[in-house]
Automatic annotation (TrEMBL):
Residues 68-314 form the Histidine kinase domain. InterPro entries: HATPase_C_sf, HATPase_dom, His_kinase_dom, HisK_dim/P_dom, HisK_dim/P_sf, Sig_transdc_His_kin-like_C. GO terms for molecular function: phosphorelay sensor kinase activity. The gene is zraS3. This is histidine kinase. It is an enzyme of class 2 (transferase). It comes from the Bacteria. Signal peptide: none annotated. It catalyses: ATP + protein L-histidine = ADP + protein N-phospho-L-histidine. The lineage of its organism: Bacteria, Pseudomonadati, Pseudomonadota, Gammaproteobacteria, Vibrionales. Its EC number is 2.7.13.3. Keywords: Phosphoprotein, Transferase.
Length: 315
């Protein structure tokens, strides 16, 4: 009898020990699983931070190059535009003299005849038209170069120094008015703007430039008729209260490879001569100067959505 009791007690102790071990194992497994989840999240955050650091280093190095190039280009562009404008004035005076010569009735017939022959041989009338067209095209080209230089400066310019309370919804409306002539035939615009949105301490002109770049980029992504959807809402990002602006299009979308490069200066998927590749890099720079964050979600053949987070107050 005592042997059976001892066996029963030994069995009960073993069962309790096994149960306790199983509970302990379950607790440790649960802790291990929780740690794995935390590690996976930390790893993902580290990957994001690594990409941001690489992007920041890339922007810094390319920005220095861009600043130097902009400075070197700006001077010759400036005096070239001045010289072409002066040349246009000189030619205008010459053609005025020609017009005066042709209207003088007191000139001897022989001299007037010789002048008309020389004038015809030099094709002065055609020269007038061609010269003005050439000057206009040259000034237009130089003005485009000047705009590119201006964009280059904005890649590295501190920008956004003048801060005031901005109504983001008003910035959206004003920016749409600016680009309306460019997008009205290509895009149907839908707005979902949160009423009574808190104001943001920001440089209003910079915010409008960010939005204008976004809207034009969306229009270019839609070959035919497309839809541009703009929304605003409040959001907390990394513990900071702010405003989230979403700019969405149903255009061609982007591959993962393209998404990795879209904020790089001079990177563009457009044909040569159709774009400088500075719009999104300038946008990225301006958002970061405001202490904000820009993200992109895109799928080929479906469309693209940019998210622009701006803190309500600057640190």
């Amino acid at each position: 009898m005592s042997g059976g009791v001892n066996y029963q007690r030994a069995y009960e102790r073993e069962r309790l020990a096994r149960t306790e071990a199983e509970c302990l194992l379950a607790d440790k497994t649960r802790d291990l699983y929780d740690n794995v989840i935390v590690l996976e999240k930390t790893l993902e955050e580290l990957k994001v931070s690594q990409k941001q650091l690489i992007q920041a280093a890339k922007m810094a190095s390319i920005g220095q190059l861009a600043a130097g190039v902009a400075h070197e280009i700006n001077n010759p562009v400036g005096f070239s535009m001045s010289n072409v404008q002066t040349l246009s004035e000189y030619l205008s005076h010459i053609f005025q003299l020609d017009q005066w010569m042709m209207t003088q009735a007191e000139l001897p017939d022989g001299l007037k005849h010789q002048y008309e022959q020389q004038r015809q041989a030099l094709a002065i009338d055609e020269l007038k038209d061609d010269t003005q067209a050439l000057i206009d095209e040259t000034l237009g080209g130089l003005d485009r170069v000047r705009n590119i230089v201006s964009s280059l400066k904005q890649v590295t310019h501190a920008g956004g120094n003048t801060r005031e309370q901005c109504d983001i919804n008003c910035c959206v409306d004003d920016s749409l008015k600016v680009v309306w002539n460019e997008i009205k035939y290509k895009m149907e615009v839908t707005k979902h703007l949160l009423p009574e949105l808190p104001s943001v301490q920001a440089d209003g002109q910079s915010i409008q430039q960010i939005l204008i770049n976004m809207f034009i980029n969306a229009a270019h992504a839609c070959e035919d008729k497309g839809t541009l959807t703009v929304s605003t809402q409040t959001q907390v990002y990394k513990g900071v209260q702010g405003i989230l602006i979403k700019v969405k299009d149903d255009g061609s979308g982007m591959s993962d490879e393209v998404k990795e490069k879209i904020f790089d200066p001079f990177y563009t998927t457009k044909k040569v001569g159709e774009g400088t590749g500075l719009g999104l890099s300038v946008t990225h720079n301006l958002v970061e100067k405001h202490g904000g964050h820009i993200s992109v979600n895109s799928k080929l053949g479906v469309g693209t959505c940019f998210g622009i987070f701006l803190p309500i107050t600057q640190a």
